[in-house]
Write a structure and sequence with these properties.
The protein has 258 residues and is α+β, with helices and mostly antiparallel strands. The protein is built from five helices and eleven strands; from the N terminus they run ββααβββββββββααα.
Length: 258
């Protein structure tokens, strides 16, 4: 479960496909839709990610995996976040050389401790960080950080990708089709009946897409089971980036060693 041990430094629960496939599905199903603006589709795909908001939709990624997302160089106490950054995974910030894990700074005045190009006014005894405005701030003037984080899946063009799950693709198709159909209805190019049919399909597809995304696989459920069925608790998960989370407990009950 250590986030830094993902194979090839990136872990995907789903395969992904481009927005071009969704656009093709719309053209194939709704013959009256003849013109789709790609810039609008990019915005609507972002809406879909926000509405479904299921963690498994996003990539689990480690900085340094590719040239677009190198490790974070800290200069003057701050470094720039990766371009596809969404949020840090648990225990997901550590020093690249020493592997010391940083924790979030939860102090009341944490967000106000950093002035531009100046150090913090108060220092912690351990390593802490604050994320604000596209930057990560630490209490070291210079450092190189390794981050494991949830990333927005994007292709080589910088366009968002869609999980290649049939129910998710169908929801994306109906969501975008409803947006276009509403504009066509406003221009009196389609009837109210046609629009309502599309809107009804969109609502029904939303539930199926959400269910397809939240359904855990057997290995994940096994990890959850062993994380809770322990007589001896493991503390200090954060210091090891949760590498022991979900480890089965080995008990030698009823063994006579005499």
């Amino acid at each position: 479960m250590n986030p830094f041990e993902y194979k090839e430094r990136q872990s995907d629960k789903f395969q992904y496909t481009s927005i071009d496939r969704v656009i093709e599905m719309i053209y194939r199903k709704y013959k009256f839709i003849t013109n789709i603006n790609v810039s609008d589709v990019l915005e609507w795909i972002g809406d879909i990610y926000g509405l479904l908001a299921v963690p498994s939709m996003f990539r689990y990624k480690v900085t340094g995996a590719d040239l677009l997302t190198p490790n974070i160089d800290i200069e003057q106490y701050r470094g720039q976040l990766p371009i596809d950054y969404r949020k840090v995974l648990k225990g997901g910030i550590r020093d690249y050389s020493s592997k010391t894990v940083y924790r979030p700074n939860r102090g009341t005045f944490a967000s106000a401790l950093y002035d531009l190009n100046s150090g913090p006014k108060y220092k912690n005894t351990d390593k802490v960080y604050t994320i604000r405005g596209g930057y990560i701030f630490v209490e070291d003037e210079t450092a190189t950080l390794e981050m494991c984080y949830e990333a927005f899946p994007i292709d080589e063009r910088g366009y968002p990708l869609i999980p290649d799950e049939q129910k998710v693709l169908e929801y994306a198709m109906e969501y975008i089709a409803e947006k276009i159909a509403f504009n066509l209805l406003a221009e009196n190019k389609i009837s109210q009946y046609v629009y309502e049919k599309i809107d009804t399909r969109r609502v029904w597809r939303a539930g199926g897409a959400h269910t397809a995304l939240i359904r855990p696989d057997p290995d994940t459920m096994e990890t959850w089971t062993w994380a809770r069925l322990r007589l001896t608790s493991i503390i200090g998960h954060h210091d090891t980036s949760y590498s022991m989370f979900g480890t089965a407990e080995d008990l030698t009950l009823g063994t006579n060693n005499d």
